[in-house]
Automatic annotation (TrEMBL):
The keyword Ribonucleoprotein does not apply. It holds the Pfam family GPI. This is glucose-6-phosphate isomerase. Keywords: Gluconeogenesis, Glycolysis, Isomerase. It comes from Granulicatella seriolae.
Length: 259
């Protein structure tokens, strides 16, 4: 990896899996299949990598596991395949974080890019009028926050290499796909040109505004520090990611939120 995430984890790009050091716990990866993604693509008949991405939804330092469980905080690690789905880059299908029983709310997610290039696409809802739509470009070490209730998907922005990232989320996470699937995906499709550059095409099943393209930013309002792994920041302040597990505790963070 190009980035040290704060604990001993290594990416095996060939096998699409993670290796853990002696002081690190981690689950075996769950592998998503091409058929899991197909219906959310602009062209459902596209071909692409059979395993678009693999995810280990509970990783970290062994000494922190009890604290993470008590806080209902979960760290996930994800690796995306290189390649493309026809004209589209490799990506997830898109979802909304469902309401978690532990906090009574949909919850946010904090991404940290470890290798490659990513785009986190997000929109305020998956209703016919989805509200504001953003595509946030992120490189190694960049952070991106997706707020509660927003629909989103993750893109490997460079089809010539794998992409990996880590993310904080709530331990009793769940995904709501219903409205996303009823619209055949989210409000914009990423399209690769002959030079592997990405443009954006509207999904006509939505009445969407123009998409806002931007680069990842810093998040001082959340108390996050630039250039410090988010796992290391958790170790330094165990309360720092309470906004992930209890987003209603400080609702002003989400008012007029822009990623």
């Amino acid at each position: 990896m190009n980035f040290y995430p704060g604990f001993d984890i290594r990416v095996d790009e060939e096998k699409m899996m993670f290796e853990y050091g002696e002081e690190t716990f981690g689950l075996e990866v769950e592998r998503r299949r091409m058929d899991d993604i197909r219906k959310s693509l602009r062209n459902a008949n596209s071909n692409g990598p059979e395993i678009p991405y693999a995810i280990a939804m509970d990783v970290g330092k062994k000494r922190d596991l009890k604290d993470l469980i008590n806080r209902s905080l979960l760290y996930g690690a994800v690796i995306y395949s290189k390649g493309r789905f026809g004209q589209e880059p490799v990506r997830s299908q898109g979802h909304i974080h469902s309401v978690s029983a532990s906090c009574g709310s949909s919850t946010p997610e904090v991404y940290e890019i470890w290798s490659g290039e990513a785009i986190i696409y997000m929109q305020e809802s998956a209703k016919d009028n989805p509200g504001k739509c953003f595509a946030v470009y992120a490189g190694v070490g960049d952070l991106v926050i997706v707020p509660p209730f927003w629909a989103h998907y993750t893109v490997n922005a460079n089809p010539n290499q794998n992409m990996s990232f880590g993310a904080w989320c709530i331990r009793d996470y769940g995904f709501d796909y219903e409205e996303v699937r009823s619209h055949g995906g989210l409000a914009y499709f990423p399209i690769l040109d002959v030079e592997d550059k990405i443009s954006w095409t509207k999904n006509e099943s939505y009445k969407a505004p123009n998409i806002c393209l931007q680069k990842a930013r810093e998040y001082p309002e959340f108390g996050l520090k630039s250039g410090v792994p988010i796992y290391t920041q958790y170790e330094g302040d165990r309360e720092l990611f309470t906004f992930v597990t209890n987003p209603q505790a400080n609702p002003t963070l989400w008012q007029d939120f822009e990623p």
